[in-house]
Amino acid sequence: MNTIQQSLAKHADGLSTLGGGHDAQRTTGMTGGQEEGALELKESSSPSVQEDLSPVAPPGSDIEESISTQEGRFHRLALDQLRLKGGLTPDAKRSQLAEEYRLIKRPILMNIDKKGADIVDNANLIMVTSALPGEGKTFSAINLAISIAMERDRTVLLVDGDVAKPSAAKRLGIKYETGLLDILDGSGMTVSEALVRTDIPNLRVLPAGKRHERATELLASEQMGKLMEQFSARYKDRVVIFDSPPLLLASESAVLAEMMGQILMVVAADQTPRYAVNDALSRLNQDKIIGLLLNKYRPTLGNRFGAGYGYGYGYGYGHHATDAESDPKSATQSP
After folding, report:
1. Bigger pLDDT: 307 or 131?
2. pLDDT in tens, 214-248
3. Which in 78, 105, 279, 335 has the greatest CB count within 10 A?
4. What stretch of H or E contains 109?
5. Per the confidence metrics, is the pTM higher than 0.85?
6. Torsion of CA 40, 42, 47, 52, to 10 degrees
7. What is the DSSP secondary-structure string of 244-278?
8. Cβ-contact 131, 265 below 8 angstroms
């Protein structure tokens, strides 16, 4: 990962201490291995993963925020709260943050469509993680999920995979306690019962579920492997985004990483020590497409324009990313 490290050093001198003020994001793009052969997409008749794909209630309709019916669970997302915290919402249109995530998601979607420089299995299974807590991985996972859900021909499943300290569903205002771990623990819960439909028609959420003392073993189980195969192959337009635990603090992240096709690692500029970035990257297999997203980036005086925000973007493919090239774009980011 020497070239990736050089790229980080070039754009975020030191990665030491976070300051205040408005922040921005930049991504160094995606790197991948050389695995050939795509997973064949096919319909599955397994009843354990059948989902209700009926239309959800439109925004503003007369419906409670969270309801459970025979058709499954529905929740109206707390978009106002997310917007106040600086998050991406469907009505953002051409906001700075919306434009930034359009740039971030494009190479990810190209990899899913096998139009990138590398082809990997399960490219539609994407893990968003970080080396340490507090780098913005959950915030980035939610923003990425909402941005991809705005595509005309994509559906998104956001999985709260940080089972030790789940927060993705909570940030969206979802209060259901059951979820992924309850599907895996043998209690008989099905995916259709655990999924939460939302008022964003193309977005569904799978909460982490009730805490379990053997969560790592559940995630490493044969049942989880079959579930991931279904997630990857059942729907051709499906993108599955996992909010994962930090790589250096939880064993669950290593288990999840083995099942993914793409891994997006969030790095907090001027906060994450370089040795932590190196250590986290060394724990990821090189047969995955790996990308770095530099979060909480504060532009220098020479890279300021308009409202005073800055953004740099570059990407590379292969085992190591090429040095990222600066291309000023505007974007804002909340911690």
Report:
1. 131
2. 999 999 999 999 999 999 988 889 999 999 999 99
3. 105
4. helix 96-112
5. no
6. 120
7. PPPTTT-HHHHHHHHH-SEEEEEEETTTS-HHHHH
8. yes
Taking alpha carbons only, the member of 249, 185, 191, 253 closest to residue 214 is 185
Look at residue 111 and give its three-state secondary structure: helix
Angstrom distance (rounded) from CA 273 to CA 271: 6
What would the pLDDT profile of 292-333 be if each residue is shown by its tens digit? 999 888 776 555 443 333 333 333 333 333 333 223 333 333
List the domains of the chain with CATH numbers. Answer: 2-39+64-303 (3.40.50.300)
Phi, psi values for residue 255, rounded to 5°: -65, -45
Lowest mean pLDDT among 43-47, 67-71, 160-164: 43-47
Is the separation of the CB atoms in 148 and 128 below 8 Å? Answer: no
* CA distance from start to end of the chain: 27
